[in-house]
Amino acid sequence: MVTKLDETELKRLESQVEHGGGGAWEYLCLVRKLKIRRSDKVLKHGLLILNDPKKRSSIGDEEWTLYEQVAIAAMDCNSLDTARDCINVLSKKFPESKRVGRLEAMLLEAKGCWEEAENAYSSLLEDNPLDQVVHKRKVAMAKAEGDLLKAIECLSKYLKVFMADNDAWRELAEIYVSLQMYKQAAFCYEELILAQPTVPVYHLAYADVLYTLGGLENIQTAKKYYAATIDFTGGKNTRALYGVCLCTAAIGQLAKGRNKDDKEGELHTLAAKVLEKDYKYRAPDKLPLLTSTLKTLKLSS
Amino acid sequence: MAEDLVLDTTIRDWVLIPLSVVMVLIGILRYFVSKLIRTFQNPDGKIVKEGQVVIRARNLRSSADFIPPKSFRARRTYYSNEENGILHVPKGQAPNPQAQMFSDPNMAMDMMKKNLSMIIPQTLTFAFVNFFFSGFVAAKIPFPLTQRFRSMLQNGIDLSTVDVSYVSSRSWYFLNLFGLRGLFSLILGEENAMDDTQRMMQMGGFGFDPSKSLGAEKDSLDIVQHDWVLPKFEQRAEAVLRKLAK
């Protein structure tokens, strides 16, 4: 997790490094610690340290960690020759290391040699079937190849063991949504809501999926989750406001002809009002569009 | 005792300081030795999985009210049905840690290594301290203490008349043994410092049985009352929006 304090520290170091104020090594350490993706900057400043023998020796044993970091950043920036050089140095220092083997496999992947990379990852997994990074690389590779079904297969296999990994659940949910397998996606989002019940993003995504699934019951549920999102975000989420309006309209249509014993709340009218107010304040020129939309939904007051 | 004991300054130079230095050096030596003989072992897949299952089941239990009743029921069945629920441990199949230890020579070996790096140096230092530094009154703490502290501070001196604020050499050894953690974390880096109290706790934790926590989790999951909170959120959202719309 990146805290606010980390973020300000990172920004400070980043601007300092960018303007040649030193502190490059501290910056790289922080990037590594927070696991954030600043590949271009890592590549630039990491190489500066690695190419300067004096600076390189001043960081001691951490030199090898830096080689690894720069190698990965280089692959991310598609400067494969640099990555190759870094990995060569590392494999000379640590022959037969699994960690270097992982880098080699990643380089193959970066080059696009899918089959060879696949084989390399598989052999790494044979040695250590619990290597989370390799599992995730396999999923990413399947995704890069465009083979989403295979990605799902790999990810499910991974989640069978590491079933408390939220990021993996989220990835799986997004893949399912892109394949329009909404029921499965809904399950994944439920899992995410269970793990972090106060994160509005998951409630919103779950509501979207339920609304897309359709059916009276699902849409009623979706409306509740949109309401939860509104509550968590303090009504600042436009998508959730629209969601409530759409759900109410859909429920009105679906429940037509049935007995309307459950009383309609005024949630949707309030949502419409807040939307109008918001548009008036932030995008006055789009206001006519909004009013006509709300009119078709029969929500405009 | 009315008058204060006067401690010879040579006691400070030849007992108090050498003892502390020896303890620090031994601690550092032990860290490097244990680093040398430590084996990296891959965690067992089954144990990892069971840990993850417990986390996920705990999540379900604590925030069950956030998912619709149907989803909750499906999950509960998945976790705790009697046939193949993932939290259900069939009777008699739970692995006995004792038996497991004997069947797996690696485990015994690991235990022995742990003991080697802990018990042997400890006995040796204790013998060393006893031999060279026994019987000294090594220091005096600058505040009075009650009689209860006598066994802690005056180990090795069996005199009931000595004021409790005097510290015997053997007690100084124990204080060092347990109190040098902060210094080690300065010398060896934050995560490398492992003091003996922690080690002892690890020893006590040996034989921890994950299937027991699975069973406990299943029991508490079985009694969870599901009460969907989402309908309440509609009213809460209304309140939020009403405030905004004003």
TrEMBL record, chain A:
What does the UniProt keyword field contain?
Endoplasmic reticulum, Membrane, Repeat, TPR repeat
Under the subunit heading, UniProt states: Component of the ER membrane protein complex (EMC).
Q: Which GO terms describe its cellular component?
A: EMC complex
User: What is the protein's name according to its record?
Assistant: ER membrane protein complex subunit 2
The record's subcellular location field reads: Endoplasmic reticulum membrane
**Taxonomy, superkingdom:** Eukaryota
Q: Fetch the Gene3D superfamilies from UniProt.
A: Tetratricopeptide repeat domain
Q: Identify the gene encoding this protein.
A: LOC110803462
UniProtKB/TrEMBL annotation, chain B:
Question: SMART domains given for it?
Answer: DUF106 (SM01415)
Its localization reads:
Membrane
What family does the database annotate? Belongs to the EMC3 family.
Indicate yes or no for the key word Ligase. Answer: no
Its source organism is Spinacia oleracea
Per the record, GO CC terms? EMC complex
* Keyword entries, A-Z: Membrane, Transmembrane, Transmembrane helix
Q: How does it sit in the membrane?
A: Multi-pass membrane protein
Establish whether keyword rRNA processing is in the entry: no
Q: Which GO terms describe its biological process?
A: protein folding in endoplasmic reticulum
Tell me what this protein is called.
Answer: ER membrane protein complex subunit 3
- Tell me the Pfam families matching this sequence: EMC3_TMCO1
Instruction: Tell me which InterPro entries the record gives.
Output: EMC3 (IPR008568), EMC3/TMCO1 (IPR002809)
Q: Which gene encodes it?
A: LOC110789993
* TM stretches of this protein: 14-33, 119-143
